[in-house]
Structures are given as C-alpha cells and as structure tokens.
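Appendix B: complex inputs.
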Amino acid sequence: MLMKKTLLAGALSLLAGSAYAECGIESGRISIIGNEFPAIQTVGAGAMACASDTVEAKSNLTADHQKLNVAGMSGNPAEYTTAIIANSSIVALMNDDLIRPLDDLVAKHGDGLTKNQLITIDGKIMAIAFMANAQHLVYRKDILEKVGAEPPKTYEDMIAIADKIRKEGILENPVGGAYAAGWNLAQEFNNMFLGYGGEFFKPGTAEPNVNSEAGIKALETMKALSEYMNPDFLTHDSNATNAEYRAGNVALMNMWGSRAATLTSAEGVPQDVIDGFAISGPMTVGGGSTPASTLWWDGWTVSKNISDEDAEATFIAMKNAIDPAILEDPEVALQAVWLLEGYKPTDAAKGVYDAAGMKTIPYPTYPYMGLMHTALGNELTDFMQGKESAEQALKDVEAAYTAAAKEKGFL
Amino acid sequence: MKHRTFFWFFLPTALAMLIFIAAPIVSVVLQSLFVPHEAVLIETENCGPFGCTTSVVIDQEATEELRAEQPLGRFAGLEIYFDRGHLATAEVASAWTTSSSIGEFLGAVGDLPFYRAMSFTLTYTFVVTPLLIALGFVIALAVNALSRRIKGLVIFFSLLPMIVTPLIGSLILFWMIDSRGVIGELIQYLTGDPSLSLKASTPLMWIALIVYGVWHSAPFAFVVFYAGLQTVPQDTLESARIDGATRWQQTRYVVIPHLMPLVTFVALIQLMDNFRVFEPIVGFNASAHATSLSWIIFNDLGGETNQLSAAATTSVLTIIGVAILLSPVLVRTWRDFRGKA
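Resulting structure:
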C-alpha cells in the first residue's frame, strides 16, 4: 500500500514537473474570463495546461463574459487575471482602467509574437490579438443550386433568393439571423447601418447620429429580412441561429467566422446539411461598396489589479496557449482566422479574408459605443415587431443613449 | 417579557438587520444621488491587425484626480430619478401636450422604459398573486382529502416547481413553448396555424410568463395552506356537518375564515416577490415583449454600460413600489394588532 502511494506521488510530481517545464512558470495564479466559441475554448484549454502544484489556473468561458469581466476585474486583487476580449469589449475595461500595459512583459517574454498581434492604444500595448473575425454569408449550396441562384453578393439578392426558396416550397423560413433582442439585434443593425454608410456619432463629439437616412434604410432592410426568418427571431442568438442551420431549416445567414467554420461538425447534423455547407464573403447593401459587416479581432489582456507575479504567470500561460504550434492540429487551424505566425488560411477562412479584403470597417472603439450598442438592443424591438415606425424607434434609441451618456459624463 | 430582556434577545437580530438590510439601502440611495465625473477624453492612435485609426479614450490620470477630489462623483440630486430611463417627467409632459387622444398618450408613455416595465410588472403581480393563492388553496384541499398512504408522495410532487431553480424551470418551459417545441407544436396543431409562435406575440408571451409564475409559486401557497388545514377546529366542522352544511358551505364558512390570516401572509410575500419578477424574463428571452424593474437593473449593470447610478435609482424606485403595494396589507395588520391590544 505504502509502495503504491509512493509510486503515485512520484508519478504526480513527474506530471507537475513536466507542466512546469512546458510553460516555464514558477508560481502564480491564472484566472481567465472570456467568450465560449471554439477558438477561445482552445486558447482557454491551452492556458489551463500550465496548472501545476504551484500554479493555480481557472477559467470561466461563457457567452455572458461581458456582464462579468468588469465586475470580476474591479476588485483588488482582481478575481480574473486575464480577460479574453474583442475590439468592442476591450473598451469597457479601458474605460474603468482595469488592464495593464504589456510593454514590459512583451519585451521579456514576447518573442514569437508578430507586430500584427500587438494592440497598441496611445502608444502602449494593451492586448495581444490571436484571431480575426467578421460576420459573413453562410449558405446551403445544394438549395441555391435547386433554385438556380448564385451565392448573394448583396442583401437585396439575399431577399430575392429567399423569396424564391419559399415560393418553391423548399423551406418556409430560409433566412437565419441572430436577431435576439439585446446585443445581437444591435450588432445586426450596426452591420446594416455601416453598409449604408452611416456614422454613429456626429464627428468629433459623443452626440448620437443614428436617426438618419442610413438608419431608417438599415431598419427597413432588417425588417424585410425578418419576414423570411423563423417567427421567433427576436429570441434567437447566434447559438440558436446555428442550431436552426444545423437542423436544415435555414439556407442563408449572416454568421460569425468564428462559429461558421465548425458549424457542421456537431453531432447529429444531417448529411445533406454537411454536404451543402458553404461560406462566402460579407454582403453589401443599398448599392454601397462597404460590406454590411464589421471587422473584429479577439485577444487577451492582463488585469491591472493583480501582483506582478500573477501578471507574469498569466502572460506566459496565455502566450503559451497561442503558440503557433497549436496550428499543427488541423481541427484547431480550422477554428478561426488565426493571427499567428505560420497560419495558412483554410477554406473556412474565406469569409473573414474577403471581409478584410473588401475594406470592411472595424467595430468602432469609442468609449461611449457600448452605451449606443445597449440602447439599440433595447429600443429596436418595437420596430421589429411592427409596433412603431423606424423614425420613432431611432428617436427612442437616441433618447435612451443621451440619458445614459449624460449620466456617465460623456455629454 | 421585560424590556431589558427583550433588548438583549433582539440585539443580534437588530444588528444583522442594520448591517445587511439598512446599510445597503442607505448606500443604494446615496449612489442614486450621484453620477460619475465628466469623462475626460483624449484623442489617441489605436493600432492593431487592421491598421491604425484615430479614436478617443478616457484620460485615466485626469479621471483619477477628479475622483480623488470628489470620491462619490458629481452630485446629481434627483436628476436621474426624472430622466428618460426612470420617471421621465419631461417626456410624459410632452406626450400629454402633443397627444390628441388618451390612447395616443398611453402609447407614448408605454414606449418609455420605466412605464413599459411597470405595465408588465403590475399586470404580472395582480394576475399571478390571486391565481396562485386560489390554486395553492385548491391543491391543499385536494391533498388533505387524500388517504394517508399516498399523501407524502403527492406532497413531494406538488412541491417540485418550487424546488426547481427558477432559471432552470423557466428555461425548460421556454424550450417547450418554442415554435418547434412540444407545447409550441401542440398549439399550432390545435389552432391549425403552422406559423403561430408564442415567442413572437406579446400577449401570448405575457400569458406564458404568467402561467410560469403561477406554476412556480403555487406550491408555496399550498404548503402554507396545507399546514393551516391541519389546525382547522374539528368541533366546528362537526357541528357544521350536524347542521347539514354541504362540503362547499363547510369550506366557505369554516375553513376559509380560519385560514384568512394565512391568506394575508401569502399575499404579502407573493406581492413582494412578484413585483420583483426577473428570472422568467431572462429564462424566456422575453425582453422584447416584457421587462420589469429588476430586469432594467440587470441590464443597466451589464458589462459594457455599467450604469451604477441608473441601477441604484431603479432599485430605490423598486423599494418604493414594494412599500406602496404592501401598504394596504400592512395597515390592516396594524389595525388588527391595535384591535387586539
């Protein structure tokens, strides 16, 4: 018995020793908060692999990360030592001064990071990006062939094809859209609004500027699209929209690159959905040349309110998680458009690459953009249900935004 | 009991109430009177994988200085209480002057977040509370009439809705009423309308939320009433029976009057709970159709907005709302107490 125990202890210490050797962290605490799509799951798991007897590692990957990260990083010491964020959600952390500049850590441990990956704000490195993302077209080539249509390049084409698919009785609601009230609905408006050439704020100020011709046109296009969606669309986030696609109920949708690549690899997806799966670039709208989409990067940050030891441990673990070696696994390479050295675009990366090539506008990073996004998410639902006009909905958005921006001291 | 003895007995409770109830309320009220400092913005160049853009960021050093001077923020008084996100006095007044009919006025007011939330919250509270009391009472009567052998099992199953975590309970129901779920399909089959969707219609969503509310809270009323039923004086019941009272008359004239204080108790607790309805709105993803004050607080505190002052103000308004709701019951209890003394 004693023998067995000794052996077990020996084996465990060997395991711990190997983890130590791999990550090179002596001690510290790593605690991750982030979104939950496949590529981030990979990064989270990579950092967790640095756990050992002396290194404590935890991760909390959830779609509600934006509701948790500010609160979880405000304490001292902060609960989360790193937040995996995107270009939109880094703003909330910057606003409250919750993340530390990484220049010293990059100088010490940053070899292998490309310049592309360093997110600098006001001359300081504030985050390390590891992937690019955008929303783009995902469609069923078998269904489009049946109705004799090419993959749509514009939203107008998309509506026309959807109408054909419905008229021929192939699918009742051929369009999928993450139109869930709240963040998702607002994001779809942002895409369309930028596609029509809209500007969210009056130049040089925090004054809202969405109640404009571009805003009204954007809403009208969204309304026209929603006629071809499952009637429950206001409760469908991107997970639910993907489920509809997997079930074979959807032929055309605007979907995140980060979720599209692995869309059909889930269990139980019918064979015709797997075979018909195809990806294309983002669509334009209203004759414009700027795609009705936004460009994103995803990356990680390090908390300000933690000890230097924990910050260093976190940096090393997170950098270890995005080591270019992870791309050797073909499944990982497929998960995202990685910004890592040696990444070769897969077929699934076409959508995001096209988005970048077509000069899609990156998601705006004004400190007050989050307030605008929230106001849009809450106030557009009445219009989408046909309860009020587009003008009234946009007037409500501006009023809600103004009240919030006044309170937060932006106006 | 001597006053002195009472004081020492009560002291620990009083301290706990002071720390866990009174102090947080004071802090919330204080927070609702202050707003964050004016944001000091500086123009910067931000670079990343898509090149460099000029944007603005908050000047942290300048903000730090402002905070050091006035740690609570800017004093706003009751400004937040009257802004569009809350009582919206200016918007209501302008709706009153510009509307040509009462209907138009109510429509304009119902478009404001606070009043929209109140219209659902009050409907929910005043429909769910009486229904759950009635249902709980009927279940209690039915279970009380069962034979001793199966009683335990039935009680356990009747309590299940209350045992299930509210969020999980509402999620399960949410999946069932999905247009591709069991109940959703059944409704489409019964009405013969394949495009009918519970989640796409505001009235149907309200009904679903109310049904969930009754389902979730009825067991609470049931447990209380069932306990009360064990104390109904058998002599009175027996004499009623000898006088030829029917079962209904026995219930109406003996059982219900006996349980009346318990009805007050259940109503009190449930009015308070239902006014703070929250979980089903999140679980049902129903914010497009129904919001409540608690949901507004949750939404204001979400990461990207983080509007502490707005959330604190809504909290204070919720406390005031609960106090107004409970005042009739509290006044009655006070009168009963005075009458007895």
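Chain A is about 45% helix and 15% strand.
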